[in-house]
Write a structure and sequence with these properties.
Layout: E1 4-13, H1 24-33, E2 41-42, E3 49-53, H2 60-79, E4 84-86, H3 103-112, H4 114-117, E5 123-129, H5 133-143, H6 147-154, E6 159-160, E7 163-164, H7 170-175, H8 190-202, E8 216-218, E9 224-231, H9 236-258, H10 268-281, E10 286-288, E11 295-297, H11 298-315, H12 319-332, H13 335-346, H14 349-360
Antiparallel strand pairs: 1-3, 1-4, 1-5, 2-3, 5-9, 6-7, 8-9, 10-11
Length: about 350
């Protein structure tokens, strides 16, 4: 059974006002003094962000438990110095992002200007183990049409600089400002994949392979495919659901690759439209069906995802978990829907943030 690990980026906020706080360095120092396990918590581009990484897990129940534990630990370290964490993919309240004092981050600011200064967006990255680069590229080639559905399930960023963006996942639209971000063409082989990455780095437009921001890529650090389309999810159980589907999609794609089945190839232009539609409507309207690239109700597209991955989900013992998770999201709403419902009730984005702090650790 493939192992799965999750990286989540959390927003550091004032527990009373909900305003973002540029305190990641202080939180990390506190975590080290508190004896936190090495390499679990890390800095990110902006000082208002804190990242954690789980261990690889075979059991989705164990992965969910570790996400919950890491969120609580992050909150504990933050609260000791006067802030807390919120699993929000953008800040609902206005913010002036503070870029970390790091040579890499300063290079990015000089190279990309305002796109770097405005990149206070928080995602959830899922690593799924693969046996080789060849299998990994076979998987990457076959995941492409299904990734917008994961983005729709995870959507958790409706607000931007104090206003409703009109999107369910505005984070994904901001993320697309990076020159290497988004869907990719079919590579066909590991050799072609690595050659394309080398050619991109050789342009000087990006600093190194770490700035290959494909929607799904081969990890530099681990023998995994890394899926990077999801917002950080408001609830830990939604993050676990995204990871559950990620593993099942990798299993399904790897089986198709081994059987010599050609990947669906709607083309990058249509994949971009599918990603835009997922960001715009989340689970509240229509999505593009991965098989036909035509609009269908979000609920029907989620059912299509379940059907596509059902064999792998069942083999992994995850089918009932996936069905229940999808039913819950379609009934209760994803993070974007919860945020908007909170705003409708309170009329205050400050209240939205402070209530989402509670959801983060639930």
């Amino acid at each position: 059974m493939r192992t799965v690990g999750v990286e989540e980026e959390l927003l550091l906020v004032d527990p009373e006002t909900g305003e973002p706080r540029a305190m990641s360095a202080a939180v990390l120092a506190r975590a080290e003094r508190d004896g936190a396990e090495p390499d679990v918590f890390e800095k990110e581009l902006h000082e208002q962000m804190l990242e954690f990484a789980t261990h690889p897990q075979s059991s989705m129940e164990s992965l969910h438990a570790e996400i919950v534990r890491c969120r609580k630990e992050a909150a504990g370290h933050a609260e000791e110095i006067g802030c807390t964490v919120a699993a929000l993919a953008t800040s609902p309240l206005p913010v002036s992002p503070a870029i970390g004092m790091n040579r890499r981050y300063r290079w990015m600011e000089e190279q990309y200007g305002i796109a770097t200064r405005e990149q206070l967006v928080l995602g959830c990255h899922v690593h799924v183990s693969v046996e080789s680069d060849e299998e990994g590229v076979g998987v990457v080639d076959r995941l492409r049409p299904w990734l917008p559905v994961l983005a729709a399930l995870s959507a958790n960023s409706p607000y931007w600089q104090g206003k409703d963006s009109g999107y369910s996942s505005y984070r994904s639209r901001v993320w697309q400002r990076w020159p290497s971000a988004g869907p990719t063409e079919i590579f066909g082989s590991a050799e072609c994949y690595h050659r394309r990455v080398a050619d991109m780095v050789a342009t000087g437009t990006i600093l190194d392979e770490g700035m290959i921001y494909f929607d799904a890529r081969l990890s530099q650090r681990y023998p995994t495919v890394e899926i990077r389309v999801s917002d950080v999810c408001l609830h830990a159980e939604t993050a676990a659901l995204i990871a559950t589907f990620a593993r099942a999609l990798v299993d399904t794609a790897a089986g198709e690759w081994r059987d010599g089945r050609e990947p669906l190839d709607p083309g990058v232009s249509l994949l971009r439209l599918a990603a835009w539609q997922a960001a715009r409507s989340g689970l509240t309207g229509e999505l593009l069906d991965p098989r036909t690239m035509r609009r269908m109700p979000a609920e029907a597209v989620v059912r299509t995802l379940l059907e596509h991955a059902a064999g792998a989900l069942e083999a992994n013992g995850d089918l009932e978990r996936a069905r229940e998770g999808c039913a819950r999201l379609l009934r209760d709403g994803n993070g974007a829907q919860v945020q908007r419902a909170l705003m409708d009730r309170s009329g205050s984005l400050r209240d939205v943030v402070t209530e989402c702090v509670r959801h983060t650790q639930a």
